[in-house]
Amino acid sequence: MLPKTQKPPPHARIPPILSAAASAAATAMVLRSLAKDLIPRELQHDLFLRLRRFLSRFSSELTLTVDEYDGLYPNALFQAAETYLGTVITPDTKRFRASKPEREKRIKVSVEKDEELTDWFGGVPIKWRLFCKDTPGKYVANPDSLGYEYGATTLKSESRFFELVFHKKIKDKVINEYLPYILEKSKILKEEQRTLKLWTLKIERGMGGLGGPRSKPWQSVNLDHPSTFDTLAMELDAKENIMADLQRFVKRKEFYRRVGKAWKRGYLLYGPPGTGKSSLIAAMANYLNFDVYDLELTATWSNSELRNLLISTANQSILVVEDIDCSIELQDRFKAAKKLVGKPLVAMDLRQPDQGYDCRSSGVTLSGLLNFIDGLWSSCGDERIIIFTTNHKERLDPALLRPGRMDVHIHMSYCTPCGFRMLAQNYLEISEHPLFTEIERLLKMKKVTPAEVGEQLLKNEEAESALRGLIELLEEKEVEEVKAGQVEQKESGSEGVTELEN
């Protein structure tokens, strides 16, 4: 025992209740460490949730969960919270995530998983925490390059959700005021930080497909294409008609609902290669401020997967299927049927692509594609534009071309005098020149694409030299066309003689 005249050391003056609390905390830390080592990771999260639910019975706080997905659809409230919480991170936050996408000025800050963040609304604290959990996905086959299955695997996806913790007295205030406030605030933030994105399919090699909508099949890069309607090499009337049609479309939400139609618009861009189809798509995206989704049909394994891709695209977007006549077998069924009339079935090689079957082609069918663009699933989303491009419109099945699927058909023709003047302004920064008259005369007679004209103007920064080079190109085209016509005439003449002899 200590002498009565001597003061006890500081630790001896600690109240017994604090000592017990410290001992309990130390014990809890030890148990937590043992649990991590002994309990499988898959069970730790479930045990933690069960413990929290048990303790919540004795608490005055309520917990509200916001899942990342609501069924098949992304949860708009989760996306809004993710955007909003990046602006309310306080110095008390210990861990958070920061990133800076390429070509963007701002640093993007977001909540890190399992980190707690406190927001104040109306003088009342509301706690947020982001949880992530791995969930098993679907069981899929792994096809090889020829379409044969050689194994299978189970895809995993990450399930994310927010938890809000607040006093039960303010439940109505949180649901009726706070959550709508977050939705509105995040909408403003997204508009301020909006950068156009080009989305493409994210395919994991050897995984046998893209998975479901929760596997996040799309990945994006910034869409920095400079094309606009002001720089597009098209006839002025055609550009004005397209812009007017786009404006009419985005302003008619209530009209589409009143007449019972999905709020979407289909465009078919057809014409020779190099006539500016991709530039027109970029100009439409820049004009509407819509993201672009580049859909490669050959990377889609089935009709159901195609539907999942449609669901996972955002509203106010442009979905593009380029060279649709080359993607999958969508040729005119009536023409194909005529070719097969009179042929015995035993003589058909089912692996010949020209007979309607290609063992390496996509599993998407014409029926699936039609349902995708004009069936019940096409109504899953608002304010969407679907664009098909092709070099050979005549090869497509008429069912794809009718109104309601492809509402507007735009012929991308060879370079016209009006298109040439726009290219001269873009490349040479001139609107008039003595050589324009000769060039425009040749353009009316020769088939040359805007891409060919632009490439020629790009060769020389001096206007006189560039324009003379273009005249030489057009004159060479004239000589080539004359020679081609002579050869064609000879071939047709020889065929006629053969026919007469037969």
**In what range is the share of β-strand residues?**
15-25%
Number of helices: 16
Helix content: 40-55%
Low-confidence stretches: 1-8, 138-155, 336-361, 486-502
Radius of gyration: 32 Å
> In one word, what is the shape?
elongated
Q: From the structure provided, what is the oligomeric state, counting identical versus distinct chains?
A: single chain
Count of distinct strands: 15
Mean pLDDT: 76
For the termini, the CA-CA separation is 131 Å
> Biggest β-sheet: count, sense, barrel?
7 strands, mixed
Order of strands side by side in the largest beta sheet? 10-9-12-13-14-11-15
Task: Provide the structure class.
Answer: alpha/beta
Concise account of the structure shown:
With 502 residues, the chain is an alpha/beta fold. The chain has helices at 16-38, 41-56, 76-85, 171-193, 236-250, 253-259, 277-288, 303-311, 324-327, 333-340, 366-374, 398-401, 417-428, 436-445, 450-458, 463-501, and strands at residues 61-67, 69-70, 73-74, 96-99, 108-111, 116-121, 124-143, 149-167, 197-201, 218-222, 264-270, 291-294, 317-321, 384-390, 408-411.
How would you describe the overall organization of this protein?
This protein is α/β, with parallel strands linked by helices. 42% of the residues lie in helices and 20% in strands. The protein contains 16 helices and 15 strands. The strands form 4 sheets. It has a 7-stranded mixed beta sheet with strand order 10-9-12-13-14-11-15. Strand 4 and strand 5 form a beta hairpin. Helix 14 packs parallel to helix 16 and helix 15 packs antiparallel against helix 16. 21% of the residues are buried.
